[in-house]
Design goal:
Number of strands: 0
Strand content: under 5%
Largest sheet: none
CATH class: Mainly Alpha
Number of domains: 1
Helix content: 55-70%
Shape: rod-shaped
CATH topology: Helix Hairpins
Length: about 80
């Protein structure tokens, strides 16, 4: 599914947003009143990113498993005469 197929941001967009939140915390300029909301948003992003990575990993494992099932076996060597 591409970003055009839904309004859901792409993995890269969510990751960039998470990086921005982390950078704000690292700078130390986040007012206490905003910290909780930013932390909650960051944790939501982390959860979504982890979920997408896990789904991608499972897809790759399925592709690898299917590929190895369908991989042709090399021809048997003929006996030397």
């Amino acid at each position: 599914m591409t970003n055009n197929e839904s309004n859901k941001p792409s993995f890269e967009e969510r990751f960039t947003e998470l990086q921005k939140i982390v950078e704000r915390f690292e700078r130390g300029d986040v007012p206490l009143s905003e910290s909780l909301a930013l932390f909650k948003e960051g944790m939501t992003l982390v959860g979504a990113l982890e979920k997408e990575l896990k789904a991608t990993e499972q897809t790759l494992e399925t592709i690898e498993r299917d590929f190895s099932k369908n991989e042709p076996t090399p021809p048997a060597e003929e006996p030397a005469e």
